[in-house]
Automatic annotation (TrEMBL), chain A:
It comes from Oceanobacillus neutriphilus. Keywords: Membrane, Transmembrane, Transmembrane helix. This is ABC transporter permease. The keyword Membrane applies. It comes from the Bacteria. The chain crosses the membrane at residues 23-41, 87-107, 128-154, 166-187, 199-221, 241-261, 299-317, 348-370, 391-415, 435-458, 465-489, 509-528. The keyword Transmembrane applies.
UniProtKB/TrEMBL annotation, chain B:
It comes from the Bacteria. It comes from Oceanobacillus neutriphilus. This is ABC transporter. Gene3D superfamilies: P-loop containing nucleotide triphosphate hydrolases. SUPFAM superfamilies: P-loop containing nucleoside triphosphate hydrolases (SSF52540). Pfam families: ABC_tran (PF00005), DrrA1-3_C (PF13732). The keyword ATP-binding applies. The keyword Lipid metabolism does not apply. Keywords: ATP-binding, Nucleotide-binding, Transport. Residues 5-230 form the ABC transporter domain. Belongs to the ABC transporter superfamily. SMART domains: AAA.
Length: 537, 293
C-alpha cells in the first residue's frame, strides 16, 4: 500500500507550487461568483421583489434551470432563501467542471504527454500522482468553500446565517470534490485524456439534465443524483447537512474505485479495448474534408447525442406543465394576462439556453484546426498542393453543418418529446420548435465566425470565444432573474434575437447577424491565408 | 547547372528575435546539399520559409524559379518534405496516414509504398499514438519517398531511427540521387551528410558561415599531421602553416594549414622523412570549428 503511494507528498507540494497562480484565480473566480452577489440580491428584494421572484421561480422552466426551493409561502422567501435558490446549483456546477478539468489535466493528460513516464522513473509510487492530484483538488475546494462562507458572512445580512453560509460554502466545495472523483474515474476508463474529459463533462451534463426533469416532476428523485446533493442542502432555509454526508460517502467510494481501476491498468492504457486498425486508408479519408471529418467525428457525435438527450429531457417536462398551472392560481393569471401560453414561454427560454450550448460545438471544431497546426500535425500537409483556403473553409463548413445538425437535434428532440407527452392537448407542433431553434441560427454562426476570426488573426485567442459564449450565456441565463439594463444585455449576441415562439420572427435582425458572421469569416480567412503557421508553440 | 533552390539574404524575425539574419545558398539540379548547424541556428526556420509555412521578412527565396510564398502550391506539387519530428494523428493508423499523405501530394506509387513499408519494417495497422519516435519518423519517410518529386526536403529525417533503418534511409536517398533529383538534407548526423551530400552549407545564429563542397571546405582547414624524421624535427615548428606543434624525440604531431601542405612537405624532406601521416579533417572537425569559433 505504502509502496503504491510513495512520496505522493512531494508531488503534492510540487503541484501547489506549480499551480498557485491558477489556484488563486480559481478560488477568487468561482468564489466571488458564488459569494459576492449578495448586494445585487438585496437590490432585487426591495419592495415586492421577493414575492415577484418567488412566483417567477415557480415556473417549471425556471425550476429546470436553477432548481427548486423548499419554501412554500411568499412570506418565508427571504433574501437568503432566494440567494441559495438561484445561485447554488449554478455555482456548484461551475466548481464541478473546474475540478473535472483540473484532475484529468494532472492525471491522464500528464500520462498522454509522457510526463508521468519520467516521474515514475524516480522513487515515486505508481499511484502517487493520482493521490497528489486528488489531494490538491480537495485542498482547493476546502479553501474555496471557506472563502465563499467567509464572504457571505461578511455581508452581514440577517437571513444569511452563519450556519447557512458554511453550508453554502460546503455545498460548492463538495460539488468540486464530486467533479474531481468523476474525472478521476473516467481518467482510468477512457483510452486518452480528451475522451476522459469529454465523457466526464458529459456525465456532469447528464446529471444536470436528469435533475431538471426530477426537480419539476418529483424533487425526491433528485436526492438520488450526485449533483442534487449540492443544492438540496437548502442553505438559509432547511439547512440540511445530510446531502453533504451522502456526497462524502459517494466521493470516497468513487475515489476507491478509481484507485482500484488505476491499479489494474498499465500506464497510458484504458479499459476500453483497442482494436487493430486498417492497413490502408478508406477512400473517404483521402481528402482534406475526409481527414477533418474523421478527426472531429468522435467529439461531434458525442456532442450531438448530448444535444438530442438534452432536448428530449427538457421536452419531457411539457406533460406536467398544465397540471402545474392548475395548482397555482397566481401563475395561471400571469400567463392568462400575458397572452402567451406557459409552453411557449418555456420553449422561448429553454431554446435560448440550448442553442447557446449548441454553439460550443462549432467553436470546438474551428479551434481544432489551430490545435492541429500547433501540434505540427499539418507540417507535412502544408508541403503539399493543399491550399490554406482548403484547410480553412473545410473547417468552417464542417463547423457550420455541425451547428445546423446540433440545432436540429436539440430543437427536434425538445419538440418531438414535448409534442408526444402533451398528446392531444398540444398547442404547438414540431415545426414551431424547429422554427424557434433555427431562429437562433445567426447566433451560432456568429460564435463560429468569432472563432474563425481568432483562427485567422490571433489563433491563441481562440479559447476566448468560449469565454464570450459563457458570458453571453450567463447574461441571458440571469436575465430572467436579475433586471439587467438593456445596453448591458445587448453585449450578448443572443439578446438581439427575438425569442420565438413568444416573440415573432425578425427577418432584418436574422439577416444582419448572418451577414456580419459571414463577413467575419471572410476576414478570418484573409488573416489565415497570410499569417505564419505556428508550430510547436 | 540549373538552380532548383535559390535563397538570397533571407531574413526572418519572430517578435524581437532575429531568427534568420542572412541566409544565402543554392541547391542545384541533381545535387544533394547538406544543411548543418547547431540547434536553434535557424535550419528549420529556413525550411519552413521555403515551404511557405512562414512568411519571410526580407530577401529572396525561390524553388524551381518560383517565389516560395506566392507560388507555394505550384512548388508543392513537385516536392516532398519530412519534418524532424513527425507528428501524427493518434487515432489513425500509420497505413491510413501514409495513404492520406500520398493522396494529398498527388501521384504516388502503391508498389513503392508497400516495398518501403517492408524495408522500414513498419506495422501499418497500428494506431499512430502507439508508435515510437522512430516509427513516426518512418511514416513520414515512407510517405515522402513513395511519391515522385523533383526536390526532397528532409529536416533531420533520421532522428529516432535505429542504425539499421538509418542505413536503409541512406540507401533510398542514394537511389533518388541517382535518378537526378535534388535533395536538401538538414541533419545532425554528420557521417550521413558526409556520405550523401555533394555540398555542405553551415548555418550559425541565422547566418550562413560556410558553404562549398566537402573538399573545398577541407581545403580551408587543417589536417592533423604526424611526422617522424632522421634529423632534429624541432625546426618544423617555425614553418609557415604549422600549428599546435608537439615534439617527442624525433617525432612531432601538429596541425597543418592545407594550403601550405606543399611547403611543409618540402621542408620536411630536408630533414629526411621516416614517416608522414596526414589525416584530413572530418566534417565533425569542420563543424566543431564553427561551433566553438
Amino acid at each position: 500500500m505504502k509502496e503504491k503511494f510513495a512520496r505522493w507528498d512531494i508531488l503534492f507540494l510540487q503541484y501547489l507550487k506549480r499551480d498557485w497562480k491558477k489556484i488563486i484565480f480559481w478560488i477568487l473566480g468561482v468564489g466571488l461568483f458564488s459569494g459576492a452577489f449578495v448586494p445585487a440580491f438585496e437590490e432585487i428584494a426591495k419592495g415586492q421583489g421577493l414575492a415577484g421572484m418567488f412566483e417567477t421561480l415557480q415556473n417549471p422552466a425556471m425550476i429546470s434551470m436553477v432548481g427548486p426551493t423548499p419554501v412554500e409561502t411568499t412570506a418565508d422567501y427571504t433574501i437568503g432563501a432566494m440567494y441559495a435558490h438561484e445561485m447554488l446549483l449554478f455555482c456548484g456546477l461551475f466548481a464541478m467542471i473546474m475540478a473535472v478539468l483540473h484532475v484529468i489535466g494532472h492525471t491522464r493528460k500528464e500520462e498522454d504527454l509522457g510526463l508521468t513516464e519520467l516521474v515514475r522513473s524516480f522513487q515515486i509510487g505508481r499511484q502517487a500522482n493520482s493521490l497528489a492530484a486528488m489531494a490538491e483538488v480537495v485542498v482547493i475546494n476546502v479553501l474555496l468553500g471557506l472563502f465563499i462562507s467567509g464572504l457571505l458572512i461578511v455581508f452581514n445580512v440577517d437571513t444569511i446565517s452563519v450556519q447557512g453560509s458554511f453550508l453554502f460554502g460546503a455545498s460548492i466545495g463538495m460539488a468540486g470534490v464530486i467533479g474531481a472523483v468523476i474525472g478521476l474515474v473516467m481518467a482510468q476508463i477512457m483510452p486518452a485524456s480528451s475522451s476522459a474529459t469529454g465523457s466526464a463533462l458529459g456525465i456532469v451534463g447528464l446529471l444536470y439534465i436528469i435533475r431538471a426533469g426530477t426537480d419539476v416532476s418529483n424533487v425526491n428523485f433528485s436526492m438520488f443524483n450526485p449533483l442534487g446533493w449540492t443544492y438540496l442542502t437548502y442553505p438559509f432555509t432547511d439547512n440540511n447537512w445530510l446531502p453533504i454526508i451522502y456526497a462524502l460517502i459517494f466521493s470516497v467510494m468513487m475515489a476507491i474505485l478509481a484507485f482500484a481501476l488505476e491499479g489494474g491498468r498499465d500506464m497510458g492504457a484504458g479499459y476500453l479495448p483497442e482494436r487493430e486498425g486498417r492497413g490502408n486508408a478508406k477512400r473517404s479519408l483521402l481528402s482534406v474534408r475526409g481527414l477533418f471529418i474523421k478527426l472531429n467525428k468522435g467529439v461531434t457525435i458525442g456532442w450531438l447525442i448530448g444535444f438530442l438527450i438534452m432536448g428530449a429531457a427538457y421536452g419531457s417536462i411539457y406533460g406536467d406543465m398544465q397540471t402545474f398551472l392548475e395548482s397555482n392560481e397566481m401563475m395561471k393569471q400571469m400567463f392568462a394576462q400575458s397572452g402567451v401560453s406557459i409552453e411557449e414561454s418555456f420553449t422561448a427560454t429553454i431554446m435560448m439556453v440550448m442553442i447557446a450550448l449548441v454553439s460550443i460545438l462549432p467553436i470546438v471544431i474551428v479551434n481544432k484546426l489551430f490545435a492541429e497546426e500547433s501540434r505540427q500535425h499539418l507540417s507535412q500537409l502544408h508541403a503539399t498542393k493543399v491550399t490554406r483556403g482548403q484547410f480553412y473553409w473545410t473547417t468552417i463548413g464542417i463547423a457550420v453543418i455541425a451547428g445546423l445538425i446540433g440545432t436540429l437535434l436539440a430543437a427536434g428532440g425538445l419538440g418531438g418529446t414535448a409534442v408526444s407527452v402533451m398528446g392531444d392537448s398540444a398547442a404547438m407542433d414540431i415545426s414551431d420548435f424547429l422554427a424557434a431553434g433555427y431562429n437562433f441560427l445567426p447566433s451560432v454562426l456568429f460564435f463560429t465566425a468569432l472563432a474563425a476570426l481568432a483562427l485567422g488573426w490571433a489563433p491563441r485567442l481562440g479559447k476566448i470565444v468560449y469565454a464570450y459564449l459563457g458570458y453571453s450565456f450567463i447574461l441571458n441565463y440571469f436575465d430572467g432573474i436579475l433586471d439587467l439594463p438593456e445596453w448591458f444585455l445587448k453585449t450578448a449576441v443572443q439578446s438581439w434575437i427575438p425569442q420565438m415562439p413568444m416573440d415573432s420572427f425578425d427577418a432584418p435582425v436574422f439577416i444582419t447577424i448572418t451577414i456580419i458572421s459571414i463577413a467575419l469569416m471572410i476576414i478570418g480567412y484573409l488573416g489565415y491565408s497570410r499569417r505564419d503557421m505556428v508550430e510547436g508553440a | 547547372m540549373t538552380e532548383i533552390v535559390k535563397i538570397k539574404e533571407l531574413q526572418k524575425k519572430f517578435g524581437k528575435f532575429q531568427a534568420l539574419s542572412d541566409v544565402t545558398f543554392t541547391v542545384g539540379a541533381g545535387e544533394v546539399v547538406g544543411f548543418i548547424g547547431p540547434n536553434g541556428a535557424g535550419k528549420s526556420t529556413t525550411i519552413r520559409a521555403l515551404l511557405g509555412i512562414i512568411k519571410r521578412d526580407a530577401g529572396k527565396a525561390e524553388i524551381f524559379g518560383r517565389d516560395v510564398w506566392k507560388d507555394s502550391l505550384e512548388i508543392h506539387k513537385r516536392i516532398s518534405y519530412v519534418p524532424g519530428d513527425v507528428a501524427l494523428w493518434g487515432s489513425l493508423t500509420g497505413g491510413e496516414i501514409i495513404d492520406l499523405f500520398m493522396k494529398l501530394h498527388g501521384g504516388g506509387d502503391k508498389q513503392k509504398r508497400d516495398y518501403l513499408i517492408k524495408r522500414f519494417e513498419l506495422d501499418p495497422k497500428k494506431k499512430a499514438k502507439g508508435y515510437s519516435k522512430g516509427n513516426r519518423q518512418k511514416v513520414g519517410l515512407i510517405a515522402a519517398l513513395s511519391v515522385d518529386s523533383d526536390l526532397y526536403i528532409f529536416d533531420e529525417p533520421t532522428s529516432g531511427l535505429d542504425p539499421l533503418m538509418e542505413a536503409v534511409f541512406q540507401e533510398e536517398v542514394e537511389r533518388i540521387k541517382e535518378t537526378g533529383k535534388s535533395i536538401l538534407l538538414s541533419s545532425h548526423i554528420l557521417s550521413e551528410v558526409e556520405r550523401l551530400a555533394d555540398r555542405v552549407v553551415i548555418i550559425r545564429q541565422g547566418e550562413i558561415v560556410e558553404s562549398g563542397t566537402l573538399d573545398e571546405l577541407r581545403h580551408l582547414t587543417r589536417s592533423a599531421v604526424t611526422l617522424a624524421t632522421e634529423d632534429d624535427v624541432s625546426g618544423m615548428e617555425s614553418v609557415e602553416g604549422v600549428h599546435d606543434f608537439i615534439q617527442k624525440d624525433n617525432q612531432a604531431t601538429f596541425s597543418a594549414d592545407n594550403k601550405y601542405i606543399n611547403d611543409i612537405l618540402m621542408e620536411a624532406t630536408k630533414l629526411g622523412v621516416k614517416k608522414f601521416e596526414a589525416v584530413p579533417p572530418t566534417l565533425e572537425d569542420l563543424f566543431m570549428r564553427h561551433y566553438e569559433g
